[in-house]
């Protein structure tokens, strides 16, 4: 199982819009093959978000990253980001 976290920063004026874009795609992503968990969290500083994802395999996560859903999300978010997103991938045992 892959644990993938993505952290992205936004200006205060853009945070609600960014969360809305993630929320709009969340149900679609959760239904994708291999997605076991997909949640969005707002940083306490209210200047960014963290997405916590569990994917059965890296290949399934790569299918998501090649999807139209991911492309639309990136097109909507990139102009709002104040810095490049940080993605971390870890291997976990799901018990």
Automatic annotation (TrEMBL):
<protein>
    <recommendedName>
        <fullName>ABM domain-containing protein</fullName>
    </recommendedName>
</protein>
<feature type="domain" description="ABM">
    <location>
        <begin position="22"/>
        <end position="72"/>
    </location>
</feature>
<dbReference type="Pfam" id="PF03992">
    <property type="entry name" value="ABM"/>
</dbReference>
<dbReference type="InterPro" id="IPR007138">
    <property type="entry name" value="ABM_dom"/>
</dbReference>
<dbReference type="InterPro" id="IPR011008">
    <property type="entry name" value="Dimeric_a/b-barrel"/>
</dbReference>
